[in-house]
Amino acid sequence: MELTERLRECTGFDWDAGNADKNWIKHGVSCSEAEEVFFNQPLVVSDDDFHSTKEEGFYGLGQTNQQRLLFVVFTVRNELIRVISVRDMTKREREVYRIHG
Questions:
Q1: Can you list the pairs that 4-9 forms with residues at least 24 positions away whose Cβ atoms lie under 8 Å?
Q2: What percent of the chain has pLDDT over 90?
Q3: Residue 64 contacts residue 36 (beta carbons within 8 Å)
Q4: Are strands 69-77 and 80-88 parallel, antiparallel or unpaired?
Q5: Is 2 or 100 the better-scoring residue by pLDDT?
Q6: Which one of 36, 44, 53, 101 is separated from 61 by 20 to 30 angstroms, measured CA to CA?
């Protein structure tokens, strides 16, 4: 099944307290902001083969409701999106987002 189809079948999010706190403290991104990325278009997603050793991982480039551009590393467990890390996009990532989004 294609990743975009898998995301459409997801019913919610699974947050690990440590990741939620880390993303807020380190990057100033709240859980709700990270979740917005999955509901807004465009959303550019790809496999994250480099960092994924224990489970299938992905990364996404997207924007919040306030047009904040975010880079999200996540996995899909059952029908839940589990955000591992989220931060502002780098300049290079913004360029990729503009080209592929």
A1: 4/45, 6/76, 7/38, 7/45, 7/76, 7/81, 9/79
A2: 70
A3: yes
A4: antiparallel
A5: 100
A6: 53
The dihedral over CA atoms of 8, 9, 13, 16, expressed in degrees to the nearest 10, equals -110
* Domains in the chain with CATH codes: 3-100 (3.10.450.530)
Instruction: Of 65, 4, 7, give the one whose Cα is nearest residue 34.
Output: 65
Question: What does residue 4 show for φ and ψ, rounded to 5 degrees?
Answer: -60, -35
Between CA 72 and CA 45 the distance in angstroms is 9
Residue whose C-alpha is closest to residue 34's, from 11, 9, 54, 59: 59
Residue 11: other Cβ atoms inside 10 A: 8
Beta 58-63 vs 69-77: how paired, if at all?
antiparallel
